[in-house]
Design goal:
The complex is a heterodimer of chains A (519) and B (968). With 519 residues, chain A is mainly alpha-helical. Chain A has 20 helices and 6 strands. The longest helix of chain A has 25 residues, at 92-116. Chain A is globular. Helices cover 46% and strands 3% of the residues of chain A. In chain A, helix 6 runs antiparallel to helix 7, helix 15 (381-395) packs across helix 16 and helix 15 runs parallel beside helix 18. Chain B is 5% helix and 45% strand. Chain B is globular, with a radius of gyration of 30 Å. The longest helix of chain B has 9 residues, at 820-828. Chain B has one domain (11-180, 249-316, 374-410, 441-751, 786-815, 887-967): TonB-dependent receptor, beta-barrel domain (Maltoporin, Chain A, Beta Barrel), CATH 2.40.170. The chains are: A mainly alpha (519), B mainly beta (968). At the A-B interface, helix 1, helix 2, helix 3, helix 4 and helix 5 of A face strand 16, strand 17, strand 18, strand 19 and strand 20 of B.
């Protein structure tokens, strides 16, 4: 303790002098995160966020609500879904992943690409924006669009009419299509969807456009018809055989880096999670396959009851949504889980499998419907319908010949004892037969086949098409539903209700319907 | 009784250590302060000095987060003012700002640890006194950081011993306390494992099975060797209670002090060893402290102090996750005698494969498998030089540092279950797979947290009598504060070799994180006190701060305070030397305090995107937080007025203070609509008003010449707050996430819990659906306030010769708590309430149905299932209002009895002083009848702003102990 006083005074003087010394205070540069990055670094995440939504969150919900999956009696995972009791929090993550995940990155990429004249990156940004917004509209109806993504300069974005946004989807897709230049530089491996294959992006954009138009086939037939006819005139091409829109950033068997649906079903040790044990086959989806002798696809879409012989289709069992939990026959261990094609086993590196934003089979079924409505020329509706089935078989590892045998059936050949949908829903026996000629309602046949092809992969699209068309007819109201009505939408998220006074009031999962849902 | 009214004016001339270590006369203070002596602090032998303030100070809200070892204690003064941060006061030890963070390992409700707060590092035996400066006026001189008030801790020095001419006085303190669980939920003892109310399910964790009948049943699946355990089907009433150990705390400290007129010193060493009520929970704290002072020359003196801490915490997890011990305990069915399954290695029915439950782990195994270990080293030092060139002028220079380094290791064991089938025994399960929880890949997280706080002060003090009537004290000073927090962590989310915890032993990639946070602040200030004839005092302060966290244009901000105090009993002639009104003072003050932002809130960033990099593919994403280059400082304005009085020669005394604080331009990370492209934005928003009344009364009914003295004290505080505005168009702001969530809602107290609620008709009756089950309100509702409206404390001291008995009670009223324990127990069907209807179908009382015309009529429909469906699926699992309990309580907080051995007895011994004592804490707890679950003091999220929720917290404890103190 021998500090001379003069030195102390000097230190003290220094303190006072520092008040005006900005250098001492300039320590507010963030050392933890960059404040600027090239847009190419943002692209992988911009595509990866919607993959989580389509491959996991909404895929699960859709599969539960179109009779593909149901909750095992002895588990509690999907109570709100089965009771139709979603809160504003249940599916908030969909909103978050899009508005605060993918879309701001896409907006940033779009700005940077415009400034630098990077045409293909701009195209990708516009196409993905359309993909994201269609999901938002199909889930929530009216959503913020023109005033969205402006940060603190507009903290209360206005909600725009769903049909106006749908018109803008076409604008975005058109701009994206126009910006594609297969000879210009492309983002290569940062494009985790098509690896920079801009021709595929063009076909994906066209197929998406077809999906957007057909969704409006009942609500705004003129818009749909004219739009599709214009595409036909322009010679639009669509996703073809094996051209699935598959996202894979390089999924790994590390926590947080697995295929998102796999991560729900298995942990990094390869052990089955409780969530998988809770997620079991729905009798509707299962029995439909059984009733149509579709045992090949059945064994890929669903897994055999644990410990049973996988060859016999009888060893695949499901339950109805909301079946009484007290009955031990509905225990998880007695039922089938989603199959190996949906989420492959850890031993087959299931964690590394891609997420499908859209299957190629859907492309054919969309073309079939457009042709059936007379809006698309070229291949006949039947051809495209059968192409769709063949594509679905191929995707699940089967041959065209096996598909042909399947869709040659004109009547339901197998009698499944409990093939009666509960809760007032009925199967249309004619729709059970996959044969085109035998099908009375061709649209029903197309949508029903699309439902099968999407089973496990794109549940949300299947649910949207069910809402639009009412197919598959056998879909039923969950047995423990709180209200005897089908849900028609997802409630607005809590965050938006709390913080944005423009959020429409009085919205429940039963009302209002999305504009294209006039069924 | 021989009662004499002897004058005891000690109270009146008390010196209070206030901001920046400045000692002031209490009567000159224009604001409310409380001083707690060492004796009062240590009488209950709590290891945390803040917990020891409970019930002793008005206007102060103190809560222990859990009953774990070294549990954290949150303190707020006069309510919570700001939407961000912890709202806890500033902690100052011997003039140096110290760190009081409590960095929890997780932000979610799973796998939480109550890590303690850093003020708990201080050995209570080293503390001379604690001064509580409640309002911002008191702390105006600390600047921004003192906006929430300040707790000024003064530690012991060798000065007293030196003054007594002692060269080496040794004080030895030793205490032992035993802790037991204070409150457990009320359990039902009628039903066991099952879910359909009829079938006994041997591996089921929920208790919705058939009624107990005492007959032998098989428990769980067969062991690996095929053998089966059979137990009587009847409730084990105390299976949860017996799980908890009796915790123990040993505290030993030795202090050596002394000196001469030139120099003095104080040296202490302490050791606190705790064993928790959860088996294997351990905590050990060692402190070493040296304080030395010296009069170097007649005009120059120096004091220096350095203390070192080593804390080791070794505990398991609480919360809602699978690794949470309480979750596993509460999911043990009522017919299972938990204590029999301690040996999870040799007892084949206690192993992973043999344990009865198909879904939850043996809690004893869970304790061994899930550990949190922290090794914390901390050095706290300061040096002060005082130079007084003239008798009215002095300069003080002080520099201090508080540096801590915490090495944490969180581990979860690999758990692999054998895939097996039930034997073909003709049972319901024959041939089926045996249910087990999912295999756990193991996990190891290593986190290093480095925290450094450096403070320097230089001040000049002028003290002069300008005229015989007017006295001036002027202080001018400057202060620099610099803080760095660096956290790095590496996590392996899967391990390969069981039982070996090193990052090298991982499967897959390491998840790293790296975060540095630096901030600096410079302030200059002036403080002028004018005293007139020793009864009228005017105090004015002014301060300007420059902060690193605001933009260069906004980083400078100024704030003043002014106060007046008037001791009317010394000014008005008839009142002077009045025997009835001995002392009377009125005071009023106004203060404004500015507050800066946290670091790095100005410029937007691009953090690494979720999941990325995937291998060699990186991606960065637009941050979810919209930062703000235009932030300006927050403003806190406080008005307060008070009255202090002493009656009958100060036999009765008390004070009343009214205050009103308005905080505005609060720098807040508000939740913004996600449709803006962000989830949060940093803005200057909102206005919160806190007002309240604090009063305290002390009374000495008995004071006899024979030495009997009885003191009674009471304090009462009323705290109200209201959110006046948030942001245009925004009326709600969530603090954290979940259902329910603490929120700021315009027009409501701050904060309130908001969550899912029963749908109710205009008369408040619950609306049920066509099946007779309650309907959920589609909008989230306010479920109650988080902070109590009334805080009451009372104490009694009886002293007779060497015997002193002290008791403290405290009570809180007006707040609610969301009890995750209640929800868990409804899920497991083990709480008493779930058996209240005998599991029969019943009509929920006082419910209505909505008619098609919108009107309501009384409900007559009975719910079909009075078991799991009603108690969990339709209520406690989905409508969080049903898990809300009143957080009111009355506690007998402390009782202590000490006996100082008479001097005569000690004369021939080597001891200067010796005393023995017995103490107890939390001896009695009274709660409203709806709380059959937990001590409502609990909080899952430790000491941060997100209060009002508990989720399978470690229950709080009652403690009893004995202590011995001797001086050589």
């Amino acid at each position: 303790m021998n500090i001379p006083f003069k030195k102390a005074a000097l230190l003290g003087g220094a303190i006072l002098a520092l008040g005006s010394c900005d250098d001492f205070l300039d320590v507010n540069q963030n050392p933890n995160d960059p404040t600027e990055v090239p847009s190419s670094f943002a692209l992988p995440n911009a595509i990866n966020r919607p993959a989580v939504v389509s491959g996991n969150t909404l895929n699960v919900l859709g599969n539960l609500w179109v009779g593909n999956w149901a909750q095992a009696g002895d588990y509690l995972f999907y109570l709100p879904e089965q009771q139709y009791n979603l809160t504003p929090l249940t599916y908030e993550s969909v909103w978050t992943e899009m508005y605060a995940g993918s879309l701001p990155d896409l907006a940033y990429i779009e700005r940077q690409a415009r400034a630098s004249g990077d045409k293909n990156t701009l195209a990708i940004a516009r196409i993905m924006q359309a993909y994201d917004y269609q999901i938002l509209v199909d889930a929530f109806g009216d959503v913020p669009f023109g005033e969205s993504l402006q940060g603190t300069s507009n903290l209360t974005p206005n909600y725009e009419k769903a049909e106006v946004i749908y018109d803008n989807l076409i604008t975005m897709l058109n701009e994206g299509l126009a910006s594609i230049d297969v000879n210009a530089t492309n983002p290569g491996t940062n494009d985790i969807l098509f690896k920079g294959d801009m021709a595929k992006w063009r076909r994906f954009a066209n197929t998406l456009k077809l999906r957007v138009y057909l969704r409006q086939a009942q609500a705004r037939p003129t818009v749909a018809q004219q739009g599709i006819q214009a595409m036909a005139t322009a010679g639009a091409t669509f996703l073809g055989a094996n051209e699935n829109a598959a996202v894979n950033p390089g999924y790994l068997n590390t926590s947080g880096k697995q295929n998102p649906l796999y991560a729900l079903f298995y942990n990094t040790a390869g052990a089955e999670t409780s969530n998988r044990k809770a997620t079991r086959a729905n009798t509707l989806g299962l029995d439909y396959l059984k009733a149509t002798n579709d045992t090949l696809r059945l064994k890929r879409i669903y897994s055999v009851v644990s410990g049973r012989n996988a060859n016999s289709y009888r060893n695949y069992q499901g339950l109805y949504s909301g079946a009484p939990s007290s009955n031990p026959i509905y225990n998880s261990t007695r039922l089938s889980a989603p199959g190996a094609s949906v989420v492959d086993a850890p031993t087959n590196n299931g964690f590394a499998k891609p997420v499908y934003l859209m299957l190629a089979s859907e492309s054919f079924f969309l073309q079939a419907e457009a042709a059936q409505r007379g809006w698309l020329t070229g291949a006949s509706a039947q051809t495209q319908y059968e192409n769709g089935i063949k594509e679905s078989f191929r995707f699940l590892g089967f041959t065209d010949a096996q598909a042909q045998t399947y869709y040659a059936q004109t009547t339901a050949a197998t009698t499944v004892a409990d093939l009666t949908a509960p809760n007032g829903a009925t199967f249309d026996p004619k729709a059970i037969a996959p044969n085109w000629t035998a099908a009375q309602d061709k649209i029903e046949a197309i949508i029903t086949q699309k439902w099968i092809a999407n089973n496990g992969f794109n549940g949300f699209e299947a649910w949207s098409e069910f809402r639009r068309t009412g197919f598959p007819k056998g879909n039923y109201i969950s047995l423990n539903a709180t209200q005897q009505q089908f849900p028609v939408r997802i409630p607005y998220p809590q965050n938006e209700l709390s913080n944005n006074p423009n959020t429409p009031k009085g919205v429940t999962i039963f009302t209002p319907k999305i504009f294209w849902d006039v069924n | 009784m021989d009662v004499t009214l002897g004058a005891d004016t000690k109270q009146l001339s008390e010196i209070v250590v206030t901001a920046v270590g400045i000692e002031r006369q209490e009567k000159a203070l224009a604001y409310s302060t409380d001083v707690i002596s060492s004796r009062s602090l240590t009488q209950g032998r709590d290891t945390n000095p803040i917990a020891a303030l409970q019930g002793k100070v008005a206007g102060v809200n103190i809560g222990k987060s859990s009953g774990g070892v070294n549990s954290s204690t949150r303190i707020t003064l006069r309510g919570t003012r700001s939407f961000q941060g912890e709202n806890q006061p500033l902690f100052v030890v011997d003039g140096i700002i110290i760190d009081n963070t409590s960095i929890q390992p997780s932000t979610g409700s799973t796998n939480q640890v109550d890590v303690g707060n850093r003020v708990g590092d201080i050995n209570p035996d080293d503390i001379e006194s604690i001064t509580v400066l409640k309002g911002p006026s008191a702390a105006a001189l600390y600047g921004s950081a003192g906006g929430n008030g300040a707790i000024i801790i003064t530690t012991k020095t060798g000065r007293d011993a030196a003054a007594q001419g002692r060269k080496a006085a040794v004080t030895f303190n030793s205490s032992f306390t035993a802790e037991t669980v204070l409150k457990l939920p009320d359990f039902q003892n009628e039903f066991g494992s099952g879910y359909d109310l009829e079938t006994y399910v041997p591996f089921e964790n929920t208790n919705y099975g058939p009624r107990f009948d005492g007959k032998p049943v098989q428990l769980g699946p067969p062991a690996i060797d095929g053998s089966v355990q059979t137990i009587p089907y009847s409730a084990v009433r105390d299976n949860v209670k017996n799980f908890f150990n009796t915790g123990t705390t040993f505290q030993n400290s030795v202090a050596l002090q002394g000196g001469n007129e030139k120099a003095n010193y104080y040296l202490s060493f302490s050791d606190a060893t705790q064993k928790g009520i959860i088996p294997d929970d351990k905590f050990r704290r060692n402190t070493l402290k040296l304080t030395a002072g010296s009069q170097l020359t007649q005009k120059l003196s120096a004091t220096t102090s350095i203390s070192y801490n080593h804390n080791k915490t070794d505990v398991t997890f609480q919360g809602s996750g699978n690794g949470s011990v309480l979750n596993n305990v509460l999911n043990t069915s009522r017919q299972v005698d938990l204590e029999n399954y301690k040996d999870f290695i040799n007892n084949k029915f206690a192993t992973l494969d043999g344990w009865f439950s198909g879904y939850y782990d043996n809690p004893y195994r869970s304790i061994a498998d899930n550990r949190y270990v922290s090794n914390l080293d901390r050095v706290l030092g300061n040096a002060t030089l005082n130079y007084a060139p003239l008798d009215w002028l002095s300069f003080t220079y002080r520099a201090g540092a508080d540096i801590s380094f915490d090495r944490r290791k969180e581990r979860n064991a690999i758990r692999t279950y054998t895939s097996r089938r039930w034997p073909n025994d003709g049972s319901d399960y024959a041939g089926q797979a045996i249910d087990r929880p999912a295999n756990n890949p193991g996990r190891l997280a290593e986190t290093d947290i480095f925290i450094s706080n450096i403070t320097t002060d230089l001040l000049a003090t002028v003290k002069r009598d300008v005229t015989p009537d007017i006295n001036v004290t002027f202080i001018a000073g400057g202060n620099i504060f610099a803080r760095t927090i660096q956290q790095t962590s590496q996590t392996a989310n899967a391990l390969s070799i069981p039982g070996y915890y090193n990052l090298a032993n991982r499967v897959g990639e390491i998840t790293p994180s790296d975060d540095v946070n630096r901030r600096r602040r410079v302030g200059i200030y002036g403080d002028l006190t004018l005293g007139f004839r020793n009864y009228l005092f005017l105090n004015a302060t002014a301060r300007n701060d420059w902060s690193s966290t605001l933009s260069p244009d906004a980083r400078s901000y100024f704030y003043p305070s002014v106060g007046l105090s008037y001791v009317f009993t010394e000014s008005i002639a008839p009142l002077k030397d009045n025997k009835i009104l001995t002392y009377g003072k009125i005071r009023a003050s106004y203060a404004k305090v500015g507050n800066d932002a946290t670091a790095y809130q100005l410029i937007n960033t691009f953090p690494a995107a979720t999941g990325f990099p995937y291998g060699s593919l990186p991606s960065f994403t637009v941050s979810n937080l919209s930062r703000n280059p235009n932030l300006k400082p927050e403003q806190v304005k406080t008005y307060e007025a008070g009255l202090e009085f002493g009656l009958l020669n100060d036999r009765i005394g008390g004070e009343v203070t009214y205050y009103k604080t308005t905080s505005s331009d609060l720098i807040t990370q508000i939740s913004v609509p996600y449709s803006t492209g962000f989830t949060q934005a940093v803005l200057n928003v909102g206005k919160v008003e806190n007002k309240g009344l604090e009063s305290s009364l002390r009374f000495t009914p008995v004071r006899t010449s024979s030495g009997l003295r009885i003191d009674v004290g009471a304090n009462f505080s009323f705290i109200d707050s209201k959110v006046l505005e948030l942001f245009p168009n925004v009326s709600q702001l969530d603090l954290g996430s979940g259902d329910p969530v603490p929120s700021a809602i315009v027009g409501q107290p701050f904060p309130v819990l908001k969550g899912s609620a029963y749908l109710r008709d205009p008369q408040g009756r619950i609306v049920v659906d066509a099946s007779g089950y309650p309907r959920k309100d589609p909008t989230l509702q306010i479920l109650g306030r988080v902070n109590p409206k009334y805080i009451i404390g009372g104490n009694l001291t009886v002293a007779y010769k060497g015997v002193r008995l002290a008791a403290v009670v405290d009570a809180r009223k007006g707040a609610v708590l969301w009890s995750g324990t209640r929800s868990t127990l409804a899920f497991t069907g083990s709480s008493l309430e779930t058996a209240s209807n005998g599991r029969e179908s019943f009509v929920i009382p006082n419910t209505v149905v909505q008619n098609s015309d919108g009107s309501y009529s009384p409900n007559t429909k009975a719910v079909a299932d009075g078991g799991f469906e009603y108690w969990y699926n339709r209520t406690h699992g989905v409508i969080q209002e049903s898990n809300i309990i009143k957080a009111d309580y009355l506690k007998l907080r402390e009782v202590s009895l000490t006996y100082d051995l008479p001097k005569a007895l000690l004369e021939k011994s080597p001891f200067g002083r010796a005393s023995i004592g017995f103490s107890g804490r939390n001896l009695l707890l009274f709660v409203p009848s709806d709380n059959k679950f937990i001590d409502p003091e609990a909080s899952l999220f430790g000491t941060n702003n997100s209060q009002g929720r508990e989720y399978n917290n470690i229950p709080s404890t009652r403690s009893y102990g004995a202590n011995l103190s001797v001086t050589f």
